[in-house]
Amino acid sequence: MITKNEVAKVFDTIMSIPGMSEPVKIDLKISRKNVLLLSHFIEQGLLLEKDASSLMGSVSQEGLTDLKNVSQECLQKAGLVELNQKLFTLTEACKS
Question: Which branch of life, at top level (predicted)?
Answer without folding.
Answer: Bacteria
